[in-house]
## 1
Amino acid sequence: MRNIKWQGLIAILLLLSTRLSAQAPMNEDGPVQMADALHTNGKIYAVVAVVVLIVAGILFYLIRLDRKITKLENEA
């Protein structure tokens, strides 16, 4: 049962990552100016780090919550 949950989680993450990487810029004239400005200033790495931390925190919380729920189910 636990293996199926992990496989489902991995499948969802893979689907989301392919969906996000397939996004085209909304501006047809060229790349997004804000992203270029962040990249030239070196601030894009801070933005990416914050996004990664938020996603990692959400995943950690969900895994911990799943373990607690599983423990409560087994006790009942």
## 2
Amino acid sequence: MKPERKEAASQISQVLQEISTRYTQIRSQAMVVDSTLKITQAALEFLECIRRSPELSMTEITEQLHQTKGRISQMASALKQKGLIMCVPGGDQREKRLALTERGRAVCEQKLSMKQSMSQTVEEICQEYSEEQLNLIGQFLDQIEQSMSVFGKCPVSKGMTEV
């Protein structure tokens, strides 16, 4: 590879790493809903799961979020205390189903609004490029994503602790 191509590839790699790091930071930050509520990304995903499929059982949420029953139970308890979800009667007396409260729906709407704002920003940036350029960028990103999947195939077991 020519030195100038190698330098360009190195710069692109650096920018992609910085984007990835920043995106991870954004996703891991708690979202400040109001002066009384900060909510983690995991809790937002929990709420979003319930928003998409109202009145899910705890078991169904566990399966959809790929979390342990204990973790889901802890999150459900915390979200109930914050007034974001409530229990509703299920098919039988033992079954707990969860639904969003008005406040929980408002939090989901706020998160959706932020996501739409991010999408709008990308759309605005895309206006500066021709369709051909966007196709090339898309192909490039697809190739990067495909090559990255090789690095993501590290075995992970349930119950392992991340450090």
## 3
Amino acid sequence: MRVLVAGVLSLVMGVGAGPAHAEGLSSLEAINRCEAFAVQALRPDVPEAMANRYKIACYFGLVDAQVDTDTDAACRRASQSFPRAHRDIAEFVCLGAYRNALPPAETAF
């Protein structure tokens, strides 16, 4: 599954290319974080095709150049292509994947 998502994303963005990667997370780290968090957080009855869409939106949020300075805005932008209910879930996966890997002191709201 990771290979499929990585393949699609590398075709769309190019692996490691572009200025967005300079400040956002690396492609591999973003894929791993999104995959791990989505598997852990999404209900098992979410269809795999929909879960993959959430992971892709998550990936685009995590490679956004502003993810470290304004995580909410980066994840919001990445989820804008979804209808409202799905947009909330995609944003949740993005935010959760980012914050899940932070040390406990940095995750305080």
## 4
Amino acid sequence: MIAYAPAVLINKEADVMGLRERLTERVQPLLPGEQVRQVFMAQAGVNPWIGNMFGLVGQSLVKRRIVAVTDQAVVVFGATFNGGKPTEVLRRLPRETQLGPTKGIWSQVNVGDEKTWVHAKFRKDVSAADATVLSS
């Protein structure tokens, strides 16, 4: 007789919300006097489609980024290989910087002179940051 474990349903939206909270907790200490409004993961280096096509070799060419949009600036952090922890501040951009628009699974965003892509699961964060810029 074979016993099967019950299937676990994953709520992707809740999973992304938990990720946002963890990212905020990790970047906030590096931003004294600022309040994080939106935070999301991104990647630079090779195009994400090419990086994924070549497996681990392709992934080694990807540079992980965390983008934090605060009440004062857009801050781009370098991140660990899995992208979950900030390692250094790479650049600060004016808060008026428009990041999008976003479309498709991977969208190229404007975070300085480095080609940077954001996955569709973070589209809400980019749109919210841009809406704040457009409304002011």
